[in-house]
């Protein structure tokens, strides 16, 4: 997979519709608002950082910047992802807490499928039960072509506390488990 650059054009639109990057993780289909994505890179060499939580897979050098890579499967409380041929890292930008600057994170996924235009009417509220991940991580459920796609709320998946931990890692510090 070659590197694909996606420009962040503004603030996330939430579940009001727009373009979404669709990807696979553990056989399930998820989506992230394209406005929160900076680029997609192929899975390459990661540097593991001692004493980090299991959700932090390691760090990468992205054009001179140290970027923590999060194992989304582990973040959802499942086993760590097995890296395969289609595995890639989605580079996302999330808001820091209390007006802090945006934080850049890498997210390990099993494979990227497509960019879809999803209308606001096609996105339903997150279910209050039955989801395989925490419901506060879900911005909505998109019904596209007879299938459901879980639209993630990136700001909640990567909480303010975790963003602070990732920032510490990027500065060369150590996180506590």
Automatic annotation (TrEMBL):
It comes from the Bacteria. Gene3D superfamilies: CheA-289, Domain 4, SH3 Domains. Residues 17-163 form the CheW-like domain. It holds the Pfam family CheW. PROSITE patterns: CHEW. GO terms for biological process: chemotaxis; signal transduction. InterPro entries: CheW, CheW-like_dom_sf, CheW-lke_dom. GO terms for cellular component: cytosol. PANTHER family: CHEMOTAXIS SENSOR HISTIDINE KINASE-RELATED, CHEMOTAXIS SIGNAL TRANSDUCTION SYSTEM ADAPTOR PROTEIN CHEW. This is Regulator CheW. It comes from Thauera aromatica K172. The lineage of its organism: Bacteria, Pseudomonadati, Pseudomonadota, Betaproteobacteria, Rhodocyclales.
